[in-house]
Amino acid sequence: AQKVTQAQTEISVVEKEDVTLDCVYETRDTTYYLFWYKQPPSGELVFLIRRNSFDEQNEISGRYSWNFQKSTSSFNFTITASQVVDSAVYFCALSGVTNTGNQFYFGTGTSLTVIP
Amino acid sequence: ETGVTQTPRHLVMGMTNKKSLKCEQHLGHNAMYWYKQSAKKPLELMFVYSLEERVENNSVPSRFSPECPNSSHLFLHLHTLQPEDSALYLCASSLDSSSYNEQFFGPGTRLTVL
C-alpha cells in the first residue's frame, strides 16, 4: 500500500532556530516521486520540491534543505534559521503509478509555528 | 493573475441544497484535480481529469459530481450532502496527469454542511 506518514502534528520553534520536518513513506513502486508542499494560512498549497526515486542527492535551496534516504524510506525537510514567515502547514506527498493510473498520496501535514 | 482560482471561498449549505464549486486555472495545464482536506486527515484525492476526460475516481460518493467542460474549468456539483462532508475542497492543476508533475493549488472552498 502507498502511504505517507508525518508523525509530527505540530511543532513550535523560536525564530532563528533550525527545524526538521519528518516524512516517511511506503510504496511498492520502483519509480515514484516525492514532494513537499507548504500551506500558509491563505489556504493554497505551494509546491516546494520534487524528488524522483532514483535521485538520492540531498538538495539545498536557500534556508531549505531536503534529505532523501531510500534505505529508511524518508524524505525529511529542514529549515535553517527559521523565520516567522515559515509558519505554515507542510505536507509531504508521494506519487506513483498504480494499476488504475497515477495516484497521489499526502501525509496529514505538520503545522509549524515560528515564534518571534 | 493567480494561477488557480476557486469560487466561492466559503459555502454554507443545508443537506437538501444543490450547489456547485468552481475552479479555473490560467496556467495552460491539461490536468485538473479535486481534493478534500479534513482536519487531521491526509488530503484525499477525489477526482482527476486529463484533457477533460475523467481518469481517476477514488470511490467518491455519488452526491459529489464533477464536471470538466474544458481544460481550464472544473466544477464539483454537490447535492444532498452530509455534515461529514464539511471540509476544505481544494482544486489543483498540473501540466498533465503524470505522477512526476507538481500540482498547483487554488485557495480552496471552505464548505460547511448543516
What structural keywords apply?
heterodimer; A: 116 residues; mainly beta; 6-stranded mixed beta sheet; 4-stranded antiparallel beta sheet; 12 strands; 0% helix; 57% strand; globular; B: 114 residues; 7-stranded mixed beta sheet; 11 strands; 56% strand
Write structural notes for this entry:
The complex is a heterodimer of chains A (116) and B (114). Helix content of chain A is 0%, strand content 57%. Chain A has 116 residues and is mostly beta strands. Chain B has no helices and eleven strands. In chain B, strand 4 and strand 5 (44-50) form a beta hairpin. The termini of chain B are far apart. Chain B is an all-beta fold. Chain B has strands at residues 4-7, 10-13, 18-25, 31-37, 44-50, 53-57, 64-70, 73-79, 87-94, 104-105, 109-113. In chain B, the strands form two sheets. In chain B, strands 2, 4, 5, 6, 9, 10 and 11 form a seven-stranded mixed β-sheet that branches. A four-stranded antiparallel β-sheet of chain B has the order 1-3-8-7, with no helix packed on it. The interface between A and B is medium-sized, with 29 and 24 residues.
